[in-house]
Amino acid sequence: MTTEVKNQSKAKEYIDSVYNQLKNKYGYQTEFLQAVEEVFSTLVPVFEQHPEYIEQNILSRIVEPDRIITFRVTWQDDQNRVHVNRGYRVQFNNVVGPYKGGLRFHPTVNESIMKFLAFEQIFKNALTGLPIGGAKGGSDFDPKGKSDAEIMRFCQAFMTELYRHIGPDVDVPAGDIGVGAREIGYLWGQYKRIKAMHEAGVLTGKQPGYGGSLVRKEATGYGLIYFVEEMLKDANDTLSGKTVVVSGSGNVAIYAIEKAQHLGAKVVACSDSNGYVYDPDGIDLNVVKEIKEVKGERIKKYVEYRPNATYTEGCTGIWTIPCDIALPCATQNEIDGESAKILIANGVKVVAEGANMPSTPEAINEYLANGVLFGPAKAANAGGVATSALEMAQNSSRTYWSFEKVDEKLRDIMRNIYRTSKECAEKYGAPGNLMVGANVAGFVKVADGMIAEGVY
Length: 456
Known about the structure:
Layout: H1 3-26, H2 30-40, H3 44-49, H4 51-55, H5 58-62, E1 67-76, E2 82-93, E3 99-105, H6 111-127, E4 133-139, H7 148-162, E5 171-175, H8 181-195, H9 219-234, E6 243-246, H10 251-262, E7 266-271, E8 275-278, H11 285-294, H12 302-305, E9 310-313, E10 325-327, H13 337-345, E11 350-352, H14 361-369, E12 373-375, H15 377-380, H16 383-397, H17 403-427, H18 434-453
Parallel strand pairs: 3-4, 3-5, 6-7, 6-10, 10-11, 11-12
Antiparallel strand pairs: 1-2, 2-4, 7-8, 8-9
Helix pairs in contact: 1-2, 2-6, 6-18, 7-8, 9-10, 9-16, 9-17, 13-14, 16-17, 17-18
C-alpha cells in the first residue's frame, strides 16, 4: 500500500469515526447531521494533506458548539392571554471573530435546525474574509397573524433573556426568517433599555438612520446574483436572456429577482409557503413588492394584478417550470432528488442556493452528475452576513457608507468567495466543484485558527 493510499485510508477512517460518534449521540437531529455529512463528505483530501488536523482531533472539536443557550419566553397577547415559547442561541465557533448569525422566528425552530444553521454559518462567515464566527438563534414563535403589539411584547421578552449572552465583541445576532427590520427594532430597543447604553454593533439588520447599513435588505439576493454572474463568466456566458425560477418571496427572493432582471434575465416564477405563481411574461416585481412588503399578503394575490399569470397550490411544482437558472430561496430541503431530475430534464444549467441547505443530498448528487453549475448556500448566499459585518464596521467607526460603496464592497466579497471556492476545489482535486471548494476553504481557515489557539 502506497503512502498516499495509507493517508487516504487514515483520513476516511477518522472522518467516518467522528461522524458515527456524532450520529450515535445526535441521531434525532436530522438537519444537523445532514449539514455535517455534507461538509465531511468533502474533507478526505484535506486530512490527507493536513495530518495535524487528525492529531489535534479538529473534527470532534468543530462539530460541538461552544455553547447552546435555551430559555423560556413568556409573553401576553392582546387579550392578555399568556403564551410560552422556547428560545435558542447556538454559539458554535468564534475562532475567526465574534459569533455572528441570524435569529429565526418560525414554528419549525428546534435545536437541530439551530445547530445546522449555526454549523453552516461557521464556514460561510469564514468564506467572507471578514472577522466573524458562527452562531444562530431563534424561537418557535410564529409572527404570522400576530399584531405589532404582540410581536413587540414577544421580542422584548426574548431579548430580556438573550441580552446577557450577546455584545458587539461577543455575539452579534441579525435577522432571518420571521425576523425583519421591525423585529430587529423591537429587540434593539429592549437591549438599549436593559443595558442603558447605545451599543449599535450588538445587532445588525437595523433600519438605516439608527445604525443600519444601506444594502442590507438587498444583500443576500444581490449577492446571490453576483455569485451566479461569476459562475457564468467562467462558462463564457451571462445572465442576459436567461429564464430564471426563484422560490420564495421574502427579502432574498425579491432582491435576487430585482438584480437578475437588472442584468437582463427573465424571472418567470416565485412562491411562498402556500404555493407559487408562474408568469410567462416575466414576474412584475413591483406587484410582488406591493403584495409582500406593503400589504403582507399571500403570493396568490399576484394573479389579481396579472391576468396572464397562474397560481398553483403547493410549492414543489415550481421546479417543473423549464428554466436556465434555478434559485431556491425559500427553506431547507425544498429541492429533492426527483425535483432535481425534472429541472435537469428541462434543461437547467445553473442552480444557486439563496436559502440555507435548500437542496437534499440526492439533489446535489444529480446536479454534479449531470454537469449543472452548482452554487452551494454557504458560498452563494453569504452576501447577507457579509453586509451585516460591513454594518458592524460602520457602527464601530460611527459612520455611514453610501449605497454604492456598500454594494461595491458586497460585489467584491462575492467575487472573492467565488474565486476562493474555485481555487480551493482545484487545489484539493475537485476542479469545478464549488461545494467542495467552499467547504474546504472555510474549514481550513477555521481549523488553522483552532490549532493556533491551542487545545481548550
